[in-house]
Every structure is written in C-alpha cells, then in structure tokens.
Amino acid sequence: MSTRQELSHPRPSSSLDRLSPAWLETGRFAAAALAGALSPGSYNSATREVIQKQIYFTAWEVLPSFIAVVAFMSAVLIQIVGETARSFNLYGYALELVIRILVLEILPLTTALLVAVRTGAAINTEVALMKIHNELEALELVGVDPLRFELVPRVIGGTVAVLSLTALGSIIALGLAHLIIIDLQPWSLPPGDFTRAIGKVFSVSAMLILWCKTLAFGLAVTIIPIAEGLQTPKRLSFAPVAVRRGMVRLFLALMLIEVAALAVTYVI
Amino acid sequence: MADRDEQSRLIQSHPEAVLVSARLPLRANLTVLENVAVVLQFRRGADAQQALGSATDLLERVGLGHCSGWRDPDLGHEERFLAKLLRAVALAPPIILIDRPGRQLPDTHYPPFLDAKLSALEDRFAQCWIVDYEWNAPLYPRRG
Known about the structure:
The structure holds 2 protein chains of 2 kinds.
Chain A: H1 2-8, H2 15-38, H3 45-60, H4 63-87, H5 91-132, H6 135-141, H7 146-183, H8 192-201, H9 204-230, H10 239-267
Chain B: H1 4-13, E1 17-20, H2 32-43, H3 48-61, H4 77-89, E2 95-99, H5 101-104, H6 110-120, E3 127-131
Parallel strand pairs in B: 1-2, 2-3
Helix pairs in contact in B: 2-3, 2-4
C-alpha cells in the first residue's frame, strides 16, 4: 500500500536524493554487467545470438547512413580547417589539426551520440517495458538468467558496435583528409607529410586515451539506458519518464567522459 | 485461491515447481519457438539448432506448429497459454503450477482443453497443480 501511495504521490525530494540512488544503481549494474561479460559461463548459443542481433541493429543496419553522415561531416570540417589554415598561412599545420580535431575528438563523440539516440533510447524503452510487464521475472522463473540472456549481451554488442563504428569513421575521415588536403592540392603539401602527421598525432598515449574513451562511450550508451530501464516502477505511465531520465543521464555521462579525456590529453 | 501471498508461499515451498501464470508473459521480442527454445539453450546448454528442433517438436505436440514464428501480440488466448505451458514443460520439471486458468483462457471451456493438452505432454512433467478459486473445484475431476 505504501508503495502504491509513493508511486501516485511521490514525496518531495532534493536533487541529490533523486540522483544519487540512480547513479548508485547504475554503478551496481555496471559492475554486474562487466563481471558477467568477463565470465566465460555467461556465453551460450542464446547469448551469442543476442550479441549478434545487437551488433546488427546498432552497427550494420545503420552503416550506409553512418558512412554518409561521417563522410559529409568530415569533408565539410576538413575543408573549413584547410581554408582557415590557408588564410593564416598555416596550411602546413592543417593536416595535423584536422586529425586531432576530427579523429581524436569529434568523431568518437558524434558516433557515441548517434548510437545513444538510436540504440540507447531503444534499449532503455525495451528494458523499461520488460520490467513493467514482468518479462524479466518470467524468464528468471523458467531458469533463464535475464542478466546473462538479455542485458549483458546488449552491453557487449553495443560496445563492440561503438568501437567498430568509431574505427570505421576514423578511417573514412583520414582518407578524406588525405584526399582534400593533399591529393586535390598536390602543390601545397607533399604526400610524406600525411604519414608524418599520423605518426605525430597517433602516439601510444593518444591511442590509449582514444580507445579508452571510446570503450567508455560504448559501455555508457548501453549500461546507462539498461540501468535506468531496470529502475522503472511497474507502471506503464513511467516508461516515458524512464526513457527521458535515461537519455539525459546518458548525455551527461558522454559529456563527462569527453571532458575527462580532454583533461587527460591536454591538461594533465 | 487467488491471494497473491498464498500463491507466493506455495511457490516458495516448492521451488521445483514451474509457474504458468497470466502475470508471467512471454518475451515479447521473441517468437513462440524462441521463447521455448531459449530455456533449452540456457538450462541444457543445447546449441541453437538442437533447441529449436526440440521446441518445434513440443509445439507440434499441442498443435501450435502453425504459430511458431509468431510473437506474443499475434497470439490468441489459447495459443499464448499453450506457449507459456510449453516454456514451463521444456525442461521436464517435476511440478508445473497453472495459476487461475480461467484468467488465461477467458473464452475457452478450459477443463477439457487443459485435460487434452496436458495429456499430450504427460511425459514432460510428473505432476500438474492447478490453482483456481474454490468455487471452480467441481470443474476438475481427478485425473486417473
């Protein structure tokens, strides 16, 4: 009865009261999901199938539009940076600038945001509805662990998809940078500059930070929506609230990861 | 017996029992066949082909083969109930517990329907308990 009253008339609470348990629950789920992902016992034919489906829906299905968006965005940015550098007589730095801005910063964040709005929102809704309709409990009662069957595979599939899309986006951007800055204007920079610029920008530490950041993006876009979905009270009217909260928290988390990576790269 | 606490006590005192209930739906994103097969994949470690094959056999035994590729919203009450029943018997549990069949089969004269379907699956469970209201007791003659 008290639960019912609380759901109908939630007690007033401070922002801290509202936020802390949600982040705490997300942390708990993240720990459980990572433990599950690292445990060989979590994998069977059913979980592998869910991982494949998640990668298909998150990366493969979106591939043509992703390539088009990344190519268009990269071409525009490369052209802007190239022209700006030329107007300041700094065309020699254009390539390095493009690689740093586009490949290390903008593309990983854009990919994570794209996956967040497309897949994160879908996962959040699905898990919230599964919780509301008792589907998770039903699976558990017939001996199917929902964490291993429904949740961990989504985290793995979503993370693999974000890593793959970021890698693909980086390759496309590098190809376009070569094409626009060197191939189309061969008098301005010799081809050897491209290799030198890549060697200079992609140091071991930069690569480490880039892939740690991308991994964190991948985990965030799946773990936060799932954790938020699992916290949904069992009432259909709470489903949109859960999705809205999940998306806002996911956006905050992605920004926080990006700022932390920037701080590690340029401040520390 | 419709009291939720009483039902919970009954289930807790018999953890080996598998429940078929209106409040435990099928997984909406899986087909009927997958809902049954996933239990075999998880609990028996069966590969996908084996599990789907065994699940298909079960579906055909209760005349549900035609809707193996359907999902929950496409199913009628009888089909949904049978899918849940098959999910419950997939592992051949010692006891299956059917919770208020009238609630799951609102348009069906359910005693003969249950009798026929349970007979078709007799080798898949040792006992079947049907939890229903006391005033429905005359509907259930003792099974031989």
